[in-house]
Amino acid sequence: MKVLVAIKRVVDYNVKIRVKADQTGVDLANVKMSMNPFDEIGVEEAIRLKEKGVVTEIVAVSVGPKETQETIRTALAMGADRGILVNTGSQDVEPLTVAKILSAIAKAEGPQLVILGKQAIDDDCNQTGQMLAQLLGWPQGTFASKVVVEGDKAEVTREVDGGLQTVRLTLPAIVTTDLRLNEPRYASLPNIMKAKKKSIDEKTPADFGVDAAPRLKVLKVSEPAKRKGGTKVKSVQELVEKLKNEAGVI
Known about the structure:
Elements: E1 2-7, E2 9-11, E3 33-35, H1 37-51, E4 57-64, H2 68-78, E5 82-87, H3 95-109, E6 113-117, H4 128-136, E7 140-150, E8 153-160, E9 163-170, E10 173-177, H5 189-195, E11 200-203, H6 236-247
Parallel strand pairs: 1-4, 1-6, 4-5, 5-11, 6-10, 7-10
Antiparallel strand pairs: 2-3, 7-8, 8-9
Helix pairs in contact: 2-5, 3-4
């Protein structure tokens, strides 16, 4: 069984985001970049399936600038077998574009399972996995907290608002990962060295016949309003008055 794992290069989750002075976007100068945490969970799950003997090959795929090779190398050091980089240069790509590229790669590679993070922490779109499932016409199990693959079926436990939902998918299928699916491993030094010798095939969107031109225009990016300090009240009556007359919530 071949598994395709989609990963994205994002600003590291520990970094405090700075908005550009002209409000055209986020300042990425000298900012630490890393693999999207949800995608890291996806890579880990693919590796665990391989360790169980269910999966034979893991292909890490990413769409982004040349520097995304470093992110793919991280996946290779964790345990992926090879990588594919679709180089988009400095151009930002939207979820639909990524889904179209992944769809073309899936048709060329023929995986039985495609694993993606449920969303990226930079745009929080939560769209690519669902769009990919629609483009391929494959079943999907989103927000997965547990994945069990047996034969040509995958049983996915999903985290939903009311609790947990279990769905059974016929492979090939799409799975998007949630936080509680697993805890990603750290790449060991020997595996980091081995990753340098693993192949990364570089492509462009044009190679797959995909127009990567943006369809959305960002008008302005601004920081959220800073929280104001709270006030202490001496009685319940004073609290009720403030909630009614100042906050306007009752």
